[in-house]
Amino acid sequence: MAVVYLIPAYLDEHSLAPLPPYILDAVKACQVFFVENERSARRYLKALWKEMVIDDYIWYPIHKAEEEVKTIFRQHLKEGRTIGLISEAGCPGVADPGQILTEAAHQAGAIVRPLVGPSSILLALMASGMNGQQFRFAGYLPVDIAGRAKALRDLEAESQRLHCTQLFIETPYRNNQLLETILQTCRPTTQLCIAANLTSPHEFIRTRSIAEWKEAGQLPDLHKQPAIFCLLGR
Predict the structure, then answer these.
(1) What is the pLDDT of residue 23?
(2) Residue pair 65/118 in contact by the 8 Å Cβ criterion
(3) What confidence score (pLDDT) does residue 63 get?
(4) Phi, then psi, of 24 in degrees rounded to 5
(5) Selection from 226, 5, 231 nearest residue 119 by Cα
(6) N vs C: which end of the chain shows fewer Cβ within 10 Å?
(7) CA angle 164-170-171, nearest 5°?
């Protein structure tokens, strides 16, 4: 029977320590890899397993899992291949297009084996000190300022009503603008956690109320830094 391994990738390419050793066993068992970015996936696996002969394996980019890719994926499942699914960072299928191929694997009756690894969403939630019993990942917020402010007010209101932690992200070059909008929009008592460069030597994690962030004066410079934001309305 075909097996699909959901193989986590590093969040920081210089930090392999957060990746458990058993990931390598799964990599060695695979014959085919479907990856979000072929170049970075090859580099990642080579760092994980220096003796790996890259050209001995079949590689397919996921892109957005178009029908053509799903057809190829299903054919390899039908042939009983062992497939590795790799995201650009973190865990496949979590805020990631790989979920569509995982769905196809279930439809084909394949064995799906998720592997433990770093997830920025879970790491930020764990470190935030916010409610881990009820939480929601909202993904990217609107780009325009008005739409973004409305989305933040809606998330804040829902968070306070349900005591639910809201997590969201932004394209790294717009992080500072998002932080500015959060501080201008949210109530002083609302809690905000900023988690940036997770698992890297430059990791930054801090939870404060909106009022405390404003009083702190100097804000972290998040420009082009991978970051995730957690919000808890109070």
Answers:
(1) 97
(2) no
(3) 81
(4) -65, -40
(5) 226
(6) N
(7) 165
Which residues are CB-neighbours of 118 under 8 A, at least 6 positions away?
8, 10, 11, 18, 19, 90, 91, 198, 199
- The dihedral through the CA atoms of 121, 157, 207, 216 has a sign that is positive
| Burial class, 99, CB count within 10 angstroms (exposed 0-12 / middle 13-18 / buried 19+) | middle
CA distance 185 to 153: 7
pLDDT at 67: 87
End-to-end CA distance of the chain: 51
- pLDDT, tens only, 83-106: 999 999 999 989 888 899 999 999
Give me the residues paired with residue 85 across strands.
Answer: 6, 34
How high is the pLDDT of residue 138?
Answer: 97
Q: Which residues of the chain have pLDDT under 50?
A: none
Query: How far apart (Å, rounded) are the C-alpha atoms in residues 65 and 61?
Result: 8
Q: What is the mean pLDDT of the chain?
A: 95
Structure tokens at 99: 């979920």
Angle between helices 99-107 and 67-78 (to 10 degrees): 40
Got the DSSP string for 19-73? Answer: S-THHHHHHHH-SEEEES-HHHHHHHHHHH-TT--GGGSEEEE-TTT-HHHHHHH
DSSP 90: B
Q: Which of 52, 72, 54 lies closest to 63, judged by CA?
A: 72
